Amino acid sequence: MKYATMKTHESEFAARLMCRVLQVSASGYYAWRSRTPSKQAQAREVLDAKVRGEFEARKGRAGAPRLARHLNKGRRQIADSLRRQGLRAKAAKKFKATTNSNHSLPVAENLLQQDFTAQGANQVWIGDITYIGTDEGWLYLAVVMDLFSRKIVGWSMAERMTATLVCDALRMALFRRKRPHGVIMHTDRGSQYCSREHRALLDNHEMIASMSAKGNCYDNAAMESWNHSLKVEAIPPCQCDLRQLPLCNY
Fold first, then answer.
1. Residue 34 pairs with which residues in a beta bridge?
2. 199 lies in a domain?
3. d(Cα 15, Cα 6) in Å, to the nearest integer?
4. Which of 19, 95, 111, 123 lies 20 to 30 angstroms, CA to CA, from 46?
5. Considering the entire predicted model, what is its pTM?
6. 1-34 burial, b for 16+ CB within 10 Å, e for fewer?
7. Burial category of 45 from C-beta neighbours within 10 Å (exposed 0-12, middle 13-18, buried 19 and up)
8. Number of domains in the chain
9. Which residue range forms the structural domain that includes residue 28?
10. Residues 6+ apart with CB under 8 A from 16
């Protein structure tokens, strides 16, 4: 590692000076420099360069799983490369919970039981509320995802977290998908989703309500994962105008 560090900074510092500082022999360093790297070492260097390039292109927001898919390499192989280079993906900042399940409103049964699969479009939709800092201040975002395609089919934004917010997102999804009937709509048990307005909207379109267990984020893990990806990959570290984000692409 010392020799590799010296090689990296040869253009900045004299080799013999670095040898003294790092307490290595100059002859040993020059002998190491003259050696031909093994095929394994060369392959590691090529991979590290690709990983670093992809990591920087994604502004440090993608970890090993996502990089492995884009580079068509093994997840462990990419994780080892990130570790060698001291690269670590940025994580989204955690804010206060947006779910208020302390209410006396009717709660639906959990029909998914953490099975986030669907055999076709418009069979199972999932929804959630998150909030993000923008140039306009804090805005609440409600989204509806089709589990089959994992695409966002409806969304709504507002300065307050109300039943109207989640209903507007659902109305958009219904309009864009030509008002299908019999869709399972899975959400947490927040007061917005348990509200009379939201339940009436489901009933009017013959949709079936499903809700997570109280305080169990894993019961809506697919939606939580999307929220995390939006904040880490699509939103810059500075505050942004959320209205400019192409939500349907996430």
1. none
2. yes
3. 7
4. 19
5. 0.58
6. eebeebeeeeeeeeeeebbeeeeeeeeebeeeee
7. exposed
8. 2
9. 2-85
10. 26
